[in-house]
Amino acid sequence: MAEVTRVTDWVEETLRFDASSQMLLRVARVPLELHGCTIPEGDRVLLLVGSANRDETVFPDPDRYDLDRDTSRLVSFGNGRHFCMGAPLARMEARIGLAELVKGVASYDVDPDGIERVHSINVRGLAALPTSVVLR
Ligand code: HEM
Question: What residues does each domain of the chain span?
Answer without folding.
Answer: 2-104
